[in-house]
Amino acid sequence: MTSRRSSLDASAAHAGGFFLDDTPTEEVDRREAVLESLAGTVRDLVDAAIRTTVEDEEVLRVRDDLAALVARLRASQLPGPAGVRFNADRRSWNWGNAVVGAANGIAPPLRVVHGPDGCHADVRLGAAYEGPPGLVHGGVSAMLLDHIMGETASGRRRTAFTGTLTMRYRRGTPLGPLRLEARVVREEGRKIFVDGSISDAGGVTVEAEGIFIQPAGTPEFPRT
Ligand SMILES: CCCCCCCCCCCCCCCC(=O)SCCNC(=O)CCNC(=O)[C@H](O)C(C)(C)COP(=O)(O)OP(=O)(O)OC[C@H]1O[C@@H](n2cnc3c(N)ncnc32)[C@H](O)[C@@H]1OP(=O)(O)O
């Protein structure tokens, strides 16, 4: 088995909390597809574990089988979290991210689409994201909006951290298919004001307003 840790660490240079990495885009895409397929199965496992009704003995046998699989993945590990990396093509990858991480089985995951007027994402939230019965946990709604609004502020050309995020929960957000939207309303110096929403088939369930800050001294690339 080949470890990936050394090549990533050797090529990384720090840039405003993000890492410039010389891994070619083709190689990033290849590895991402592999990790994504693993995370999809992990996500399925989480859902199956929540909803299983098999006998206790079978649950315990599955637990032992899983422990053996975990040990195989632990054979070669990063020393800490996956971090955020980007290369000279401005291909960025944040495989551990809680919302979009390709390798993260507890990320829904959100697939953010960047357009001229902002960003949107279609997502289906299952049993792992439940708060009130049949409804999305309010913190999960805030987390997803925080991410898509932050990515909108970032525009894939600068880093933008959440300064203030205000949520208005208009009605319960049902588990199932949902659409998230975000757009930049205005900018003042390093402050980027962003609106966001979550909708189901019946309309908006959650609205949000956020102020995202570009940390002082961090790089900004031209718009693409
Ligand atoms: C690089 C290449 C491309 C890479 C491409 C990758 C793209 C990848 C996209 C990822 C998208 C992630 C989306 C998730 C986003 C999170 O979840 S980020 C995590 C949660 N947020 C945090 O942890 C932030 C913690 N806070 C901080 O780090 C710092 O307080 C901040 C927010 C950076 C501000 O610090 P600062 O720059 O020292 O701020 P400061 O100079 O005091 O103030 C600047 C201005 O902002 C205002 N301000 C400061 N703090 C706040 C606040 N909390 N609220 C409102 N206004 C504030 C000040 O009043 C001031 O305003 P003016 O006086 O200029 O009018």
From TrEMBL:
<keyword id="KW-0966">Cell projection</keyword>
<keyword id="KW-0443">Lipid metabolism</keyword>
<protein>
    <recommendedName>
        <fullName>Acyl-coenzyme A thioesterase THEM4</fullName>
        <ecNumber>3.1.2.2</ecNumber>
    </recommendedName>
</protein>
<keyword id="KW-0053">Apoptosis</keyword>
<comment type="similarity">
    <text>Belongs to the THEM4/THEM5 thioesterase family.</text>
</comment>
<dbReference type="GO" id="GO:0016787">
    <property type="term" value="F:hydrolase activity"/>
</dbReference>
<keyword id="KW-0378">Hydrolase</keyword>
<keyword id="KW-0472">Membrane</keyword>
<dbReference type="GO" id="GO:0006631">
    <property type="term" value="P:fatty acid metabolic process"/>
</dbReference>
<dbReference type="InterPro" id="IPR029069">
    <property type="entry name" value="HotDog_dom_sf"/>
</dbReference>
<keyword id="KW-1003">Cell membrane</keyword>
<dbReference type="InterPro" id="IPR006683">
    <property type="entry name" value="Thioestr_dom"/>
</dbReference>
<keyword id="KW-0809">Transit peptide</keyword>
<dbReference type="GO" id="GO:0016020">
    <property type="term" value="C:membrane"/>
</dbReference>
<dbReference type="InterPro" id="IPR052365">
    <property type="entry name" value="THEM4/THEM5_acyl-CoA_thioest"/>
</dbReference>
<dbReference type="GO" id="GO:0005737">
    <property type="term" value="C:cytoplasm"/>
</dbReference>
<keyword id="KW-0963">Cytoplasm</keyword>
<dbReference type="Pfam" id="PF03061">
    <property type="entry name" value="4HBT"/>
</dbReference>
<keyword id="KW-0276">Fatty acid metabolism</keyword>
<feature type="domain" description="Thioesterase">
    <location>
        <begin position="134"/>
        <end position="206"/>
    </location>
</feature>
